[in-house]
Amino acid sequence: MRSVGGRLFLSYLAVVVVGLLAASIAMSGILVRYENETIQLRLTELSAPLLTAMNSALRQGQQPREVIDSLAEQANSANARLLILSNNRRVLVDSDNAMANQTLPPPTSGNFGSFNDKDAQWLFVQSVFRPAATGVNPAIIVVGRPRAAFADALRVLFPALAAAGAVAAGFALIVAGLLSRTITRPLRELAGTARRFAKGDYRARVPVAGPTEVADMGGAFNDMAAEIERARGSEQAFLADISHELRTPLTSIQGFAQAIADGEATGAAITPAANIIQRESRRLMRMVEGLLQVARLQAGAPDLAKERVDASQLLASARTALEPQAHDAGVRLVFEPADLPTLRGDPDRLAQLFLNLIDNAVKHSPRGGRVVVNGSRADGQLVVTVRDEGSGLPQGADKRLFRRFYRGDNATQRDGAGLGLAIAQAIAEAHGGSISARNVDAGGAEFTVRLPAA
To answer: Where in the chain is the domain with CATH 3.30.565.10?
Structure first.
């Protein structure tokens, strides 16, 4: 069988069969031992008077044949057999006249032994006759009985044993069927849910039930399904966002290019139209390059350098690069780094990380406000915080703001496509770090970057 249920059923059935066989073998051993003990006890009781009578008759001078013939009727009534052996165990006289001149095997336990005759096994007990007269060889007198106790006991017990075995086998088959169905039902449900999921039902989930291993499999499937559903939603949201972001510059480019082509923009109007086309083209280029950069970083692109980087120098370079922009926006940059560790990574990408964060803080700070950049060492990591004095983060935006194309309410007046924070997060994660954001009590937002020190 190829199904799990069928294999489980056959496995349980095999266990039951093996158990019944083992029980039968154990019962047979018990019966054999019982037979030996019973026959030895019966032989002891039966042979005592016969051995005494044979011993007395021989002492009175009777011949072995006469002794056997005189006790033959008594032996037959007890289903016994009388033999007289010579000193070398050769049969002199046999009450059944079947083993004359044959050699009887010696006893195996004390005075008890067994021999085969006429396709039957006989158990015997023996006694040594020692004549009082000198010069006469001793003889061995034997009383035997057929080994029928085992067959009799088996014949009596077989119907009960067969009935008990049949009941046990039937009960075991029922239990095996129920157990196999109990174990395989969650698997069947998992297979059905997987088929529904493959057909596009991304909300399909399986109940976590059954044995521990099967329940773990169901839980793992649900986690995978939830992650795929989330990724699917993110993909659809990304497609909607990029469609919206690309439509605006493309519309401007198409409109002004069409105006120039149709001759509607002539003379002095051509230069402004060309400038708009150029500006929107650069905007499209920045978006495409930003998307490619995020995609490469999130895919674990192997082109990241692994150099020792001075974190203090990174922040100093970012301050130098953004001072003119902050001055034009009326925002004061305050840097408070102290005892910064050395990093290992790509200096260009790390520089871009801090540039994007500080640039974002400057854009969202009011004129006359401050952007405070603080750096420290904690638990073997570089911790850099960038705090602005703007309006802070909207409710629930601490997770969304790292998505591609996410922008605040005032972003329509800013020059940007909403990729700066997504790029910053991708760079941090590519270096084994993280970025988090929160609102501060004094007003504004604070971004915290954690990067492992070299």
So the answer is: 307-452
Which residue spans of the chain are classified as CATH 1.10.287.130? 212-298
SS3 of 365-428: the string is CCCCCEEEEEEEEECCEEEEEEECCCCCCCCCHHHHCCCCCCCCHHHHHCCCCCCHHHHHHHHH
Query: Taking every pair of C-alpha atoms in the chain, what is the biggest distance, in angstroms?
Result: 161
Superfamily of domain 4-155: PAS domain (3.30.450.20)
The CATH class that applies to domain 307-452 reads alpha beta
**Which parts of the chain have pLDDT scores under 70?**
1-9, 31-32, 35-36, 132-137, 148-158, 234-235, 237-242, 244-245, 290, 293-303, 396-418
Within the chain, all domains assigned CATH 3.30.450.20 are found at: 4-155
Helix (H) or strand (E) segment spanning residue 129: strand 120-129
d(CA 109, CA 208) in angstroms, rounded, equals 65
CA distance linking residue 344 with residue 451, whole number of Å: 9
Q: Does domain 212-298 have CATH number 1.10.287.130?
A: yes
Contacts of 382 (CB under 8 A, 6+ apart): 311, 340, 341, 343, 375, 376, 449, 450, 451, 452, 453
Reference 288, options 390, 423, 165; nearest CA is 423
Q: Can you give the pLDDT at residue 351?
A: 87
pLDDT at 448: 92
CA-CA distance, 188 to 126, in Å (whole number)? 71
pLDDT at 148: 61
Q: What angle do CA 416, 387, 441 make, to 5 degrees?
A: 120
Q: Which two tokens stand for residue 293?
A: 């950069």
Cβ contacts of 236 within 8 Å, gap of 6 or more = none
